[in-house]
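FORM 7B - TANDEM STRUCTURE REPORT

SECTION 1: FIRST PROTEIN
SEQUENCE AND TOKENS:
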Amino acid sequence: MPTRSGGIAVAPAPLPTHDPPGPSRATKATVDSFPRVGYQPRSGMIVTGIAFVFLTVWLTTLLDAGTTETLVATAASCFLVGTALVINNLLRWENAENAYEKQRMSAETWNARFRKLHSESTRTGAVLSHMSDGIVMLSPKTEILLINEAAARLLAIPIDSVYLGRRLAELVRVPEIIQATRKTQRDNVDQNVSVEIVDGSIVRPVAVRISRIHDADPPHLLLVLRDETDAHRVEAIRREFIANVSHELKTPLAAIKGYAETVELAIEDDPEAAKHFIAQIDTQCLRLEDLIADMMRLARAQSGKGTLMVQTIDLEKVIRQAFSSFLPVAAAKQIELTLRPSGAPVHVLADEEAALAITQNLISNAIRHTDAGGHVSVSCRQENEGWMMAVEDDGVGIAPEFQERIFERFYRVKRARKAADGGTGIGLAIVKNLTRALGGTVSVTSSPGEGATFEVWLPKP
């Protein structure tokens, strides 16, 4: 019957047809060499002693000895027989104690080895059962000898099924894996394959490496399976990031190139138009500067605490500094920008420049997505040994399916607004990475048409 240890299923090893070398043979030899017969009761010596006493009495009677001589001879023979029996029993007990001590020490040695092997087996099982990678061990006949839960999940095999001892081809309907397994056996060369395994409604990309275990005779096979879903997602994000960066850089560069060509043609015939186009070139250059500056801030935020000067700061002071920059912007857009006093000193453990960048990006994002006549408010409250800064607006709001992605670089919920909103698409990514570097958290609560509330928690000193 298969055995289970934690999340590991292991097929039992076949019983040997002969005595294997090593511990089992040594144990058998030790047990067989134990002199059991030497420590069993010896009735023969007692019978011999009694016969010796009777022989002594018979001889004294045969020699016509007197009663006194007969008693003396009988007593002497009984004394000799008793003394011999006592000495013999003492020697037997001494030998028995020595043999027992040897057997006890041998048993303790084997017990210690067993505990060590059991401990190693338990640790190995625990490690394999908690691995995210799948592990499958196959016999030379490609029968499953060992499999962990991750492998069963990645291969879409029910973990409760009976599959130990069955051939891999009977359970796994993926031709690429079966062919790679056979090729590894045939060519004695490790194989790597990438496959897509369907598990119900989920299509999971899996990387499989098949190698031979040369320590076993004959060599066994080891399959290592890795879920490539996250790697594919990261690769997709990387491609999207490169495409977005290229697009964000290409748009102002194309505008600058077009305006420069127009200025070159109009500088003599229409100086006023040339001035207008030069102003547009300047605007696009500023946009490029803002984009590059934001990318530098994002790179600094993603580098962690190493580039930050973390100390005790007054968060409300930082918020007022950010307000001074955005009050004219909010007034021009007819948006009411307010700060709700907390009533207590808001001291947090953070980098002042990073906290200012977080606050500015959140306020800028709120103003950008709030229509004229709207409201944006900032407040702070104590929560969980820290302070929570909340930036709330009554703007367009964010649908739930977009709320996880808005913190990605260059991700925009409404692509049509990107040319007019004035943002670079990196602000919320900067907020997320800076907050994480400071040991804080960021979250958003929003519904379409009902505004959004961004909350940043920072620890107290």
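SECTION 2: SECOND PROTEIN
SEQUENCE AND TOKENS:
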Amino acid sequence: MPRMPDLPAHLDPHALVADIRDWAKALGFSALGVAGTSLREDEAHLEDWLAQGLHGEMAYMQRHGRKRSRPDELEPGTRRVICVRMDYMPPGVRGAWSVIEDDQRGYVARYALGRDYHKLMRLRLQKLADRIADAVGPFGYRAFVDSAPVLEKALARDAGLGWIGKHTLLLSRDASSWFLLGELFTDLPLPLDEPASAHCGSCRRCIDICPTQAIVAPYRLDARRCISYLTIELKGAIPEPLRAPMGNRIFGCDDCQLVCPWNKFAQQATEPDFAPRHGLDGAKLTELFAWDEETFLQRTQGMAIRRTGYEGWLRNIAVALGNAAPSPAVVDALQARADHPSALVREHVAWALREQQGKRSKAEAAD
């Protein structure tokens, strides 16, 4: 982007940032902050994480080299990063723990229940950029919403929007972690916000609750064990030792957020598009498993769930059905997919049927 040397003389930069915060809130963002471009410590942390192979099959994490941690190299001319938060927990959603504890229902991460946030937030960021341009004239910018190699949590921390918790998610004292992040890389010489301080203390509830023990140390996630990775990013077979710990989580996982003490300060979403679609905040597994591909594509139109693909959807639900209490309905649902054209689906269905048989045998022996 072309470098803007200075703001127009009649503009007070601090007043401009205050106005930008107001415009952002009017667009549905819950908070806004301004960060610089230096992320050297975070860069070292990322490179160590990658060197240990903790990113699994997410090759894109290292594809762009250090551009991920150097905003001014990813987008030349960047001087500041305007970071925004948007709350996504919809009001009236079925209680998360009540779904997780009901093995006949499928658990979907709460950010994915409604419309995919990527396009929604990018459009809002574009409107914010247009509003800024009305005030300052043409300026250089580029909007990102989890759509490019950006260390968004580190930037949001430096912008004062929260601190990175031991579960590696961003935490806010007034909003917990139930929010999404977006950025405007810009050439505007705006005043910087103070970075947020950390407030996890000695707490390790997120580490202890993780079903697959993916948080291998404070601030260190082994993505290869993370249920979000297994159900979304991984395209092949889910490792057998990790299937039982997944329980009924069929798209993502929220346990580390649900158990966080800061969760009591979570804010509900004001965006109606984040409301659950098709009863996915607690739908029956057998009903979801019965969707054919056309139904899957139709019902996940414009949703993040589409990312897992139809085969991945059936794979994930097969694991959840294998983990469910034994019942004729579960077995019937699995047997209906036993000859599925996909070898990936067939293998997970076969595993689930063996699990069901083993549970029935144990129950009969106990009687």
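SECTION 3: OBSERVATIONS ON SECOND PROTEIN
The chain has a mean pLDDT of 95.
The longest strand covers residues 80-87.

SECTION 4: SIGNATURE
Preparer initials: ____
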